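Structure first, sequence second, as always.
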């Protein structure tokens, strides 16, 4: 059986994902640093805004995709990485400027080269968006 990402290796890989410039500029943080697979969150600020006081769909897409990756990380070997192959997203509502949006994902199934995830974005108990994200598992470079 192949070893999977855990402990410091899992934390380091999650930290690396948060350093992607778009994620960093949106101010995305882990919900639980001790369990990165729990998901991520950001407060809707200028960059995440849609110009009308709500959340831009593109900012939601970034959070959804990141949460899919975070959920997938514990299912990867240290030599593997996961990249998005396809996404299906339903947008239901928008958060307002200053509100915190949380993104939580789960892995529905992992095959040899694919991880099928479901992700939900919420704000104060309201579902903002749902996504099904398929991740291709590739060799880490």
């Amino acid at each position: 059986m192949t070893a999977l990402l855990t402990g410091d290796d899992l934390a380091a890989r999650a930290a690396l994902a948060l350093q992607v410039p778009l994620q960093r500029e949106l101010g995305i943080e882990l919900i639980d640093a001790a369990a990165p697979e729990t998901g991520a969150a950001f407060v809707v600020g200028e960059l995440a805004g849609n110009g009308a006081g709500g959340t831009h769909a593109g900012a939601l897409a970034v959070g959804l995709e990141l949460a899919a990756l975070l959920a997938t990380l514990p299912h990867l070997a240290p030599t593997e990485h996961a990249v998005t192959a396809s996404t299906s997203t339903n947008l239901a509502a928008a958060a307002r400027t200053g509100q915190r949006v949380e993104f939580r994902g789960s892995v529905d199934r992992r095959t040899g080269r694919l991880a099928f995830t479901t992700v939900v974005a919420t704000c104060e108990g309201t579902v903002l968006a749902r996504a099904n994200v398929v991740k291709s598992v590739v060799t880490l470079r």
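Margin note: Helices lie at 7-18, 21-26, 57-72.
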